[in-house]
Amino acid sequence: MVPLLISVLALAQAPVETKITKVAAKDLPAAVVAVVKGAAPAMTIKEAELKERENRRYFDVEGVMPDGSEIEFDLLEKDGAWTIVETQRDIAWSDAPKAVRDAAAASGKAITPVRVIESKQNDGMVIYELFATGKPKDPSMEVSFKDGQAKVLSEVWPH
Q1: If we measure between CA atoms, which residue out of 131, 129, 119 comes closest to residue 89?
Q2: How far apart are CA 105 and CA 11, in angstroms?
Q3: Residue pLDDT, tens place only, 106-159
Q4: Residue 36 near residue 73, CB atoms below 8 Å
C-alpha cells in the first residue's frame, strides 16, 4: 500500500505541461496588440505564441524595434484583460549591473554566459537569465535584481 501512495504523490507533483500554439501576428487579438503597441509603439510584431498552463493564458509577442533590436513581451490574461508581466531582450553580460555579475560569480557555479536575457517584471524586479555554452534551451542560472540587490535564484522564475 505504501508504494502506491508514494506513486500517487509523485504523480501529483509532476510538472504541468504547457500547451503552446503559434499565432500569426495578423491573428493576434486586438486587445493584445493594443497593450503591446502601448508599451512599444514603434515595434513591428514578428511572431507570437499562446501558452496555456495551470488555468493561465499567456501570449509571448516577439518583435523588432526600428534600430533592429529584438524585444519580447509576455502578457498574462487576468479577468479577461491582458497585462504585460515581463519584457525581455538580449543584452551583453558586461551590460548587466555589477551586483548581478558579482552575485553570479559568488554563487560557486562556474558559468560564463554566452547569452543573457534581461527580463523586466512589472513590479520593478529584473531577472537575468544566463545561458551556458551548449545549453541554449534553459538558463543555467537566474539572478534577480531589485532595489540594488542581486540574488541567485534557487527556483526557475514563473514567467
Answers
A1: 119
A2: 36
A3: 887 877 899 999 999 988 999 999 998 887 778 889 999 999 999 998 766 655
A4: yes
All cell numbers assigned to 81: 484583460
Three-state secondary structure string covering the chain: CHHHHHHHHHHHCCCCCCEEEEECHHHCCHHHHHHHHHHCCCCEEEEEEEEEECCEEEEEEEEECCCCCEEEEEEEEECCEEEEEEEEEEECHHHCCHHHHHHHHHCCCCCCCCEEEEEEECCCCEEEEEECCCCCCCCCEEEEEECCEEEECCCCCCC
* Bridge partner list, 38: none
Judge contact between 77 and 61, C-beta under 8 A: no
CA angle 116, 117, 120 (to 5 degrees): 140
Residue 30 is which amino acid?
A: A
pTM beyond 0.85: no
Please classify residue 97 by burial: count the beta carbons closer than 10 Å to its beta carbon, then call 0-12 exposed, 13-18 middle and 19+ buried.
middle
